[in-house]
Amino acid sequence: MNLRALAAKAVFDVLERGVSLSVALPEQQKLLSDGKDKALLAELCYGVMRFLPQLDHCVSQFMSKPLKGKQRIVHQLLLVGVYQLYFTRVPAHAAISETAEACRKLKFEGLVKVVNGVLRNIQRQIPALAESNDTLKYNYPGWLLKRLKAAYEQWPQIVEASHQRPPMWLRNNRRQQSRDQYIAKLVAAEINCRPGLSDDAIELEFATDVSRLPGFAEGAVSVQDGAAQWAATLLAPQDGELVLDACAAPGGKSCHLLELADIQLLAVDADSKRLERVQQNLDRLALNAKVIHGDAANIDSWWSGERFDRILLDAPCSATGVIRRHPDIKWLRKDSDIQELAELQKQILDHCWQWLKPGGTLLYATCSILPDENSNQVAAFLARTPDARLDALPQQADPLAIGWQILPGQDGMDGFFYARLKKATL
Ligand SMILES: C[S@@+](CC[C@H](N)C(=O)[O-])C[C@H]1O[C@@H](n2cnc3c(N)ncnc32)[C@H](O)[C@@H]1O
C-alpha cells in the first residue's frame, strides 16, 4: 500500500465527509503492517490538520485552477505532499516521487504530472507560508479565533499550545500498586516519567506503545490525560455510595471512580457503539459497573431506583480544549454547534440535577475552553436552580471564578473545565 495514498484517503474522509480523524486514520493504518509506517501515516494526517489553511493556500498558489468533485482527493494528496516538504525530514525527492506515485495508485493517472509539477515548483522556491490573515497566521478557523479572543487575553498562547504535540499520561491503578511503585517499574523498563499533580497521574517523557508498559494488559495502568484524571478526584466518591456517570463512554472516568472507592456505579451513554469500549475498559481493569444505553436527559426511561449520592456529568462538548490531540476538530466543528451543544448540556444538567439526592454532589465537566459551555453555562444554572450552590475548588487560581478552567498545555494537561455543585439538604 502507498502510505501517501492512504494519508490522502484519511484526510479526504475528514475534510470532505466529516469523519473524525480518530475513526478515519485507524481505517487506513490497519492496511499497513510496519509500526514505523503507521506512525508516519499518523504524522502526515495530523500535520495536515494542524497546518491546513497554510498548506491549502500554498497549493492554490501553484495551481492554475482548483481540483473539484472526485479529483478533490488529489488536492488532499497535494496537502500531504506539501506538508512533507515544509514540516518533515523526508528528503524532498522521496516526498515528491512517493506522492506522485500515490496519485497513480489513487487511479488519477492523468494528474500525476500535475502533482509532480506542483510539488517540484514548491520545492524549488519554498516560499514563506502565508500569514496574511489570522486564519493563515494561526492555522485556526476565524469563528473559533473570534471566540477565543473574546474570552482570553492570552489567546495567542492558547492557540500556540494547541499546535504542540501532547504528552502521554498514565493513570496508576491504585488497587494494584502505589504510584511510586509503578514509577519504579517504568524506570526499570527505561521509560522516563514524572508524577503529575493529581494523585494517580504519571506523565511520560516520550509517548510509547502500551505493550511496553509493565502490566498494562493486567490493568496496572490506563492511558488518560492529566486533566481528565481530576474528574474522579474532584467528585471524591465514598465507599457504599450510588454514583451515576451520566455520559460515560469510553469509560476512562468511570474506571477511575471505581478504582477510588467501592461504589455502585451506573455508567450510562447514549452511544451504544462507544459503550462497548466502557465494558472493555472495565474488563481489563477487573471492575464492575451497570453499563446502560440511555439518555442522560431522560433518566426516568431507564432507571427506577433511588436518587444518586454523586453524579459525574462529563458533558458532550466542542472539545476545543483537546485540539492538540484532535486537530481535526478545528475543521469539523462550526460556530453554530456551540449554541446547540450548550442547549444539550443545559438539558442534561437540569435533568441530572433532579436525580441527585439532597446533600449530593454533581461534578460538571467538559473538555472545552469556551465560556458558553463552561462558566456561563454553570452561572446560568446557578441562577435558575435555588437548591444548587457552587463548591469552589482549591485548584482554581481565582477562588471567585465559576469553576476551574484548565487551559491546554497548563502543567502538561489538556484544556478542561470543572465545576462542583452541591445540592442543599432538605
Ligand atoms: C466527553 S464524552 C465522555 C467521556 C467519558 N466520560 C470518559 O471519560 O471516557 C461525552 C459522551 O456523552 C455522550 N452523550 C451525548 N449525549 C448524551 C445523552 N443525551 N445522554 C447520555 N450520553 C450522551 C456521548 O456519546 C459521549 O460518549
From TrEMBL:
* Uppermost EC category: transferase
InterPro entries with a match to the protein in the record: MeTrfase_RsmB-F_NOP2_cat (IPR049560), MeTrfase_RsmB-F_NOP2_dom (IPR001678), NusB-like_sf (IPR035926), NusB_RsmB_TIM44 (IPR006027), RCMT (IPR023267), rRNA_ssu_MeTfrase_B (IPR004573), RsmB-like_ferredoxin (IPR054728), RsmB/NOL1/NOP2-like_CS (IPR018314)
| GO annotation, biological process | regulation of DNA-templated transcription; rRNA base methylation
Residue limits of the SAM-dependent MTase RsmB/NOP-type domain? 158-424
Reaction(s) the record says it catalyses: cytidine(967) in 16S rRNA + S-adenosyl-L-methionine = 5-methylcytidine(967) in 16S rRNA + S-adenosyl-L-homocysteine + H(+)
Highest taxon above the source species: Bacteria
Q: Which UniProt keywords apply?
A: Cytoplasm, Methyltransferase, RNA-binding, rRNA processing, S-adenosyl-L-methionine, Transferase
Q: Where in the cell is it found?
A: Cytoplasm
One annotated GO molecular function is:
rRNA (cytosine-C5-)-methyltransferase activity
Keyword Transferase among record annotations = yes
EC numbers, comma separated: 2.1.1.176
This one is known as Ribosomal RNA small subunit methyltransferase B
The lineage is: Bacteria, Pseudomonadati, Pseudomonadota, Gammaproteobacteria, Alteromonadales
**Gene responsible for this protein:** rsmB
